[in-house]
Specification:
The protein has 163 residues and is an all-alpha fold. It has one domain (2-161). The chain is 77% helix and 0% strand. The chain is built from 7 helices and no strands. The longest helix is centred in the C-terminal third of the chain and has 30 residues, at 132-161. The chain is globular and about 55 Å long. It starts with a helix and ends with a helix. The mean pLDDT is 85.
Length: 163
């Protein structure tokens, strides 16, 4: 009974994050974008056949792009570019799951910002300001990737050993 309540609360928390957080980002510009983290969740969903990860991250990405007036589907294009062309070359990190998470977040963020710069150059407009807030956003992406991996590890330890 308690586990169903906790899983229901976690589900509601993720619904709140997916729907409301991109709206808050459009109001409070100092909030991190979590582009790399959403890319990490999208890729984890593809790897593990977890459609909930894919759907939640896709809705978050679409909501973020619409609320911030970013080019539509450019984040998904960046994620898929990483997934098909760069991730197969990162097999040497297979024994270090946290390294894979960190590398995925960094690569998705960098690829997205490169694609966005190319898009801005081609259309002669400015979609986003490249300043120190972008670095903080990438830093928060990395922290989120490490924390989620650590919480998942702690949860498995708690289940296995009651720690």
């Amino acid at each position: 009974m308690l586990s169903r309540l906790i899983s229901g609360l976690i589900f509601l928390f993720w619904i709140f994050i997916v729907i409301v957080y991109p709206m808050l980002i459009s109001i409070y510009v100092v909030l991190p974008l979590f582009i790399g983290f959403s890319g990490l969740m999208f890729i984890k969903g593809l790897d593990e056949d977890n459609y909930l990860y894919i759907i939640f991250s896709f809705i978050y990405i679409l909501n973020l792009e619409l609320n911030l007036s970013l080019p539509l589907m450019l984040i998904v294009t960046s994620i898929l570019f990483f997934y098909f062309f760069i991730k197969p070359k990162l097999t040497f990190l297979k024994l270090c799951p946290i390294c894979i998470n960190v590398a995925t977040v960094i690569f998705v963020d960098v690829i997205y910002f490169i694609f966005l710069a190319l898009y801005d150059f081609a259309t002669e407009q400015s979609s986003i300001n490249y300043d120190s807030l972008i670095l903080f956003s990438v830093l928060y992406d990395l922290i989120a990737a490490v924390l989620i991996w650590s919480i998942k590890l702690y949860y498995y330890l708690w289940l296995a050993f009651g720690v």
